[in-house]
Structures are given as structure tokens and as C-alpha cells.
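Example noted here:
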Amino acid sequence: MDALTLLREAEAAGLSVEIQGDKLIVEGPRAAEPIVHRLAEHKRVILRALQPDWASDARKVIAQFDDPDLRSDLLSRYEETAAQLEHDQGNERAKAEMLAFGELLAEILRRGIDVKTATR
């Protein structure tokens, strides 16, 4: 089963689906219970589909910029920030990457980089 198809079915049936740690939290009408069971059957796939990949998203943002020096600098800053947040401040890797992603966006804004004109 394709996770996105199942999630779309759940949404169409009035269900809300979110993750909390390794659990799926599903709320909605009792009439949608068969879909809830299908979500439970495919829990691992659903969790992977809903789990953000901050490092991959950071690379996608950085790849939008034409200047190779800027891309290199932003990628280095992202990776250094994530490592510092993980190792020096004791955050789990996923949280460190999430926080580093926020720092990356803040750095782009601080520099006044026009993200609207970034081309791919």
C-alpha cells in the first residue's frame, strides 16, 4: 500500500493522522474505523512518510542557489550547526537537524538572500 494514497483516503474520510514518537495518533469519525485498521497495518510505512528528513530538506533548499560558494558555505554551516547541537548540546540527531534547519533559514534571511529569484 502506498502511504500517501492511504493518508489521502484517511483525510477524505475525516481522519487526522499525526505521529508522536513511534506512535500514530488517529482521530476522526467511528465510521472510518476500517481505514484506521489499514493505517495500523501499514504503520511503519506511514511513520516513514510522515517523518521529516531535515538534512535532505536543507540540501534541497541550498541546492536552489546558483552560487557554488554560497551553497558550499550554507551546507558547511548547516552540517557544523547540526553536529554542534547534537554533540556539544546533547540533542538527539533528529532534533539537532531540525534546529539546524531553522538556523539555516535564519542565516539565509540574515544575509538578505532573495529566495524568490533562486533558480534550479
Summary: Residues 54-117 form one domain.
